[in-house]
Amino acid sequence: MNHHASDVHVLAAAYALDALDPGEREAFDVHLPGCEACRQDVADFRATAARLAASASRAAPAPMKQRTLAAVDHVRQLPPRVPAAAPVSWRGTLRRRALPVALAASLAAAASLAGLAVRQDQEMRRLEQQARQSEQRLDQVGRVLAAPDARTVHGRAANGALTSVVASDRQHRAVFTAGGLPAPAPGTTYQLWLDHGGTMHPAGFISRDGSVLLDGDTAGAARVGLTLEPTGGSPQPTTAPLVLMALRA
Predict the structure, then answer these.
(1) What is the value of pTM for the model shown?
(2) With contact defined as beta carbons under 8 Å apart, do 217 and 201 qualify?
(3) How far is it between the farthest Cα atoms of the chain?
(4) Which of 19, 97, 100, 190 shows the greatest Cβ crowding within 10 Å of its Cβ?
(5) Residue 92: pLDDT above 60?
(6) Domain-wise residue ranges, the chain
């Protein structure tokens, strides 16, 4: 099979993917050793195909597959753009020139879908981990509130919020509850503290009305405090306590 030089160059993508017929492949094998540009194109296409294979090796999450299949029915496909009257002598050249473009478009689309699948899988894993952590915290709160030795201390913060602490000596845990807690000023947050021997240790945060499990072991802690701190918290209180509640009589 005879090929003009301009025809042979456009076969690089198909050659890299083993998509040529025997005659075309034989012609390209003869051409390739003397053409640096084609050798580079073949190497690039093979590297891209290998990366796509690695990216697509993990199955897409089921929800993404369902959404994609559902969306296909609503996507209108455009007809191919074909010249109205292409000269017969150019048909072979046009077909060969279109092949790398179509292959490149397919590779790009596959890469985009593979990347989307990986990102969605990572996001789903992150959300699942957050859900498990929230469930664990709620379970721990419930165990403290239902503990046989649970005791409750009530207080009122300087900003008017009603507060309470439920503590269990057996579990060495405590739950802080607030009601009517005003929204903190921009750049600040409510931080909780445990007083151990006169030293305040960070015990977590509370941003709105509700109950939170205090961070840290309450064994030996004398009081629970609440202060308004810069966003992100502080290693030690930087403002006067809004409320201090004794854990023991």
Answers:
(1) 0.49
(2) no
(3) 100
(4) 190
(5) no
(6) 1-58+90-146, 151-246
